[in-house]
């Protein structure tokens, strides 16, 4: 148990022992690191959160809590009350230094939690139509989805990462017809591109390759030819998307095909379930879902008057399948243009007999690329919209992944390409990686001077102010991970990484690691190795490398 968690449990025990409120009524106790270090190592607002329940003045409550705390068991050196009722704690620095041993023992698992009842979570992200290249919006979606998956897994959840392949519907029919048009063009026949066709270079390449390898396809019946081109087109586009995602360090556990919903009969099953539950009705020669029963602004059509499904129905069947697979929580990451889709999809969960709250939807707001202070809309290489591949080529995977999760998903993001390329402390990813490389350099020097990492070396002699602040930052990591998981706030990890790197740089500038005092040197070597391991673990959560040299 780390020092912060130990303190939290001591406060909880003190509240229970005080008799201020009924045990079952005690709210969650929060322990934070004060911004002003003069206020101590940790602080809690527990007294203020208990005011209404205890019906007492918060300072009076604070005094009661303090009188019931076991200071020795929690390694508390001093306790004070500040302001309206904040309780501040100064800890035994020897105990604070013990976090070093915890990190060195757990190594790559430092910060990882184990939940007694693992919640099964399915995260669906990216899910771009297989009709063209991934763009900047998909890059943000992919970065956030992968990072959120990593965080939840590290926090103890049972996580599945899934990509929904939209390989059915009008857009795929248009893809097949577009390939057909390019196929016949390559055979010397007039181009007959459909009105909503795809004019990308890759579609022309597919058509030309098919014409060269399979000229006999022109003699097939039109329906058979279109079906073949549909399958080949989706296969070609998905192969390209998967290659780009793999380059971007995005991996999925499942690739779920929309077509499989039709083949398995799950669309019919989902429709039957909603009908049996009383939420489906007929009107105006169409079949409707009563989504207004679940806070949607109007009911939604499932089957149009011509007998074809709306795009909503296969999406409902897909979520029906997710539920049937036994997931406790469904998380979808959607683009900014899907905001109006939230209520109807959550309503469909209700119609399926599930709690709409089982589904969480995060909307990815828009990303604007800036270069030399001006917006970049077109790729210099192709003269078309900037793609994920372009972004990787421009700044590399590390910078792209780091920058894409630096801000909350519900805010628009200005992506400064010049900053992402710069090798300066202003570039947050460079700043963090440089901290890791600097630690590795010091450890190499230590080894050359005969100092190995000795886990038996005492660390209670660490008293330097910047060193203790650095240790407090290391101590925070498990709670940062848990908080990011519970709030689905991926930006908290790069924020933490920056703060940890800053704390290390401050320590490095204030204190010499390899000094004349051999005992202190050994303690500092252990400390910076613990910092290095924590930094590596945090960078791994966002799939950014931790270089040993720069």
Automatic annotation (TrEMBL):
EC number(s) on file: 6.1.1.19
Segments forming domain Arginyl tRNA synthetase N-terminal: 1-91
GO MF annotations, alphabetized: arginine-tRNA ligase activity; ATP binding; isoleucine-tRNA ligase activity
Gene3D superfamilies to which the protein is assigned, alphabetical: Arginyl tRNA synthetase N-terminal domain (3.30.1360.70), HUPs (3.40.50.620), Isoleucyl-tRNA Synthetase, Domain 1 (1.10.730.10)
Residue stretches making up the DALR anticodon binding domain: 432-550
Taxonomy, superkingdom: Bacteria
Broad enzyme group: ligase
Family to which this protein belongs: Belongs to the class-I aminoacyl-tRNA synthetase family.
The protein's assembly and partners: Monomer.
Protein name (record): Arginine--tRNA ligase
């Amino acid at each position: 148990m780390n020092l912060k968690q130990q303190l939290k449990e001591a406060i909880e025990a003190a509240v229970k022992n005080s008799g201020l409120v009924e045990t079952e009524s005690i709210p969650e106790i929060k322990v934070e690191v004060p911004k002003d270090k003069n206020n101590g190592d940790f602080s809690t607002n527990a007294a203020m959160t208990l005011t209404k329940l205890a019906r007492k003045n918060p300072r009076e409550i604070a005094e009661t809590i303090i009188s019931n705390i076991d200071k020795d068991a929690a390694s508390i050196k001093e306790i004070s009350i500040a302001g309206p009722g904040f309780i501040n704690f100064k800890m035994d620095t020897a105990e604070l230094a013990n976090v070093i041993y915890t990190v060195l023992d757990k190594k790559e698992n430092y910060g990882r939690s184990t939940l007694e009842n693992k919640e099964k979570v399915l995260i669906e992200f990216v899910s771009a139509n297989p009709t063209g290249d991934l763009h900047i919006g998909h890059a943000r979606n992919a970065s956030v989805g992968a990072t959120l998956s990593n965080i939840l897994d590290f926090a103890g959840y049972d996580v599945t990462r899934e990509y929904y392949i939209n390989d059915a519907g009008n857009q795929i029919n248009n893809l097949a017809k577009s390939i057909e048009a390019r196929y016949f063009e390559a055979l010397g026949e007039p181009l007959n591109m459909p009105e909503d066709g795809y004019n990308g270079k890759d579609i022309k390449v597919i058509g030309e390759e098919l014409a060269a390898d399979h000229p006999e396809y022109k003699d097939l019946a039109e329906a058979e030819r279109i079906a073949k081109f549909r399958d080949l087109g989706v296969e070609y586009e998905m192969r390209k998307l998967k290659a780009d995602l793999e380059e971007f360090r995005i991996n999925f556990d499942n690739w779920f095909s929309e077509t499989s919903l039709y083949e398995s009969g799950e669309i019919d099953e989902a429709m039957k379930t909603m009908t049996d539950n009383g939420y489906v009705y007929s009107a105006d020669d169409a079949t409707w879902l009563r989504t207004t029963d679940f806070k949607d602004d109007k009911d939604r059509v499932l089957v149009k008057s011509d007998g074809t499904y709306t795009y909503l129905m296969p999406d409902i069947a897909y979520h029906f399948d997710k539920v049937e697979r036994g997931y406790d929580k469904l998380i979808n990451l959607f683009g900014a243009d899907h905001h109006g889709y939230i209520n109807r999809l959550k309503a469909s969960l209700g119609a399926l007999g599930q709690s709409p709250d089982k589904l969480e939807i995060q909307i990815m707001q828009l990303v604007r690329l800036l270069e030399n202070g001006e917006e970049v809309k077109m790729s210099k290489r192709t003269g078309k919209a900037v793609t994920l591949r372009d972004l990787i080529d421009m700044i590399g995977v590390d910078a792209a992944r780091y920058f894409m999760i630096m801000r909350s998903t519900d805010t628009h993001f200005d992506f400064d390409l010049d900053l992402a390329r710069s090798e300066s402390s202003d570039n947050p990813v460079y700043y963090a990686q440089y901290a890791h490389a600097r630690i590795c350099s010091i450890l190499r020097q230590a080894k050359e001077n005969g100092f190995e990492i000795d886990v038996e070396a005492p660390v209670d002699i660490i008293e330097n102010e910047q060193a203790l602040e650095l240790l407090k930052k290391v101590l925070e990591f498990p709670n940062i991970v848990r908080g990011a998981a519970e709030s689905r706030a991926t930006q908290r990890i790069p924020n933490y990484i920056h703060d940890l790197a800053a704390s290390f740089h401050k320590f490095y500038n204030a204190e010499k690691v390899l000094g004349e005092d051999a005992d202190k040197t050994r303690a500092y070597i252990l400390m910076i190795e613990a910092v290095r391991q924590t930094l590596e673990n945090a960078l791994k959560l966002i799939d950014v490398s931790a270089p040993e040299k720069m």
